[in-house]
Write a structure and sequence with these properties.
The protein is of the alpha/beta class. The protein has twelve helices and ten strands. α6 packs across α7. The longest helix is centred in the last third of the chain and has 20 residues. The termini are far apart.
Length: 301
């Protein structure tokens, strides 16, 4: 029987010490004591595949387990949303295979990507499938694990900070708040193969819910129209976050009825997160506070 989502812990003995991942010295000395690190460090075996979430872009948001596994990889199969700063952490001798998916262009189809993972594992390689955000949140990680199981390939899954959480935090607002939003929903804004976007728009129209649309930029008009038709106010705040958590991050705050025009007027491009809800109003308050604090510091400094 194939075991999936299982992490083997390296034992704290001489063998474990000789099999250290090629980690930066600073991580051993400053981040976590060496003995503690190797009691919990995941070990990637030959012929095994690790599905690793790289987070939303900022390399500082990469988890320690993700970094440890990247450093053990013989082969890394990555998507286009993995930042160059994170890719720079891979071992020099590891092979990089770019699966580079966007909404209109695939360097590899999903079926081809699945097969690459299997073939590399069958060659006895330590394989890391590196994905932006979290592999199990609109990352097709579930499909890839199913394919690996069907081919008797053992896998490890390491979650990452999903883009919704990272982008909203870096834009200055939460996804939930007792006064504004008691729930949050993650939604794919990408149309199905038949061209439809068949979602529970009535549920999303509730004013006490934050709705996060991944990959929804091309369907902004449809999103705006459907939410309003189900009763969501045209004045509901909306945040558009382009390249969130990276040095190229841009945040545009608009309202639901102005969503399509805001995208056009600001020439926003993928990857851009669309977040709908009253919590977005806190972004301006936080920005104003930050500016006041900054101005006060300059005056008294």
């Amino acid at each position: 029987m194939v075991v999936t989502k299982t992490i083997e812990l390296a034992s704290n003995n001489d063998d474990a010490q000789t099999n250290k991942p090629n980690m930066p010295t600073a991580l051993y000395e400053k981040v976590l004591p060496e003995k503690a690190l190797f009691k919990t460090a995941p070990k990637l075996h030959k012929g095994q595949v690790a599905l690793v979430g790289a987070g939303p872009g900022d390399p500082g948001l990469l988890t320690l387990n993700a970094l440890l596994l990247i450093q053990q990889a013989d082969v890394i199969v990555c998507d286009r949303l993995v930042s160059p700063e994170i890719m720079a952490l891979k071992p020099e001798n590891s092979e990089l295979i770019n699966a580079g998916k966007s909404c209109k262009e695939h360097l590899l189809t999903q079926d081809e990507t699945n097969e690459v993972l299997v073939q590399q594992a069958l060659k006895g390689k330590r394989v890391v499938r590196l994905k932006g955000g979290d592999p199990y949140i609109f990352g097709r990680g579930g499909e890839e694990v199913e394919y690996l199981i069907a081919h008797q390939i053992e896998s490890i899954v390491v979650p990452g900070i999903t883009s919704a959480s990272g982008c909203s935090s870096y834009a200055g607002f939460p996804l939930t708040h007792r006064d504004f939003a008691q729930s949050v929903t993650f939604v794919t804004g990408h149309r199905m193969k038949d061209g439809t976007l068949d979602l529970d728009w009535k549920a999303f129209a509730s004013s006490d819910r934050t709705v996060v649309f991944y990959m929804g930029l091309a369907n902004a008009q449809l999103i705006s129209d459907n939410l309003q038709s189900q009763g969501r106010s045209a004045e509901t705040p909306v945040a558009l976050i382009e390249r969130g958590t990276t040095p190229k991050q841009r945040v545009v705050v608009t309202h639901l009825s102005g969503l399509p025009d805001a995208i056009k007027d600001n020439n926003l491009k993928p990857p851009t997160m669309i977040i709908v809800g009253e919590v977005v109003s806190l972004a301006e308050k936080n920005r104003s506070l930050a500016e006041r604090v900054s101005n006060h510091s300059r005056q008294t400094g």
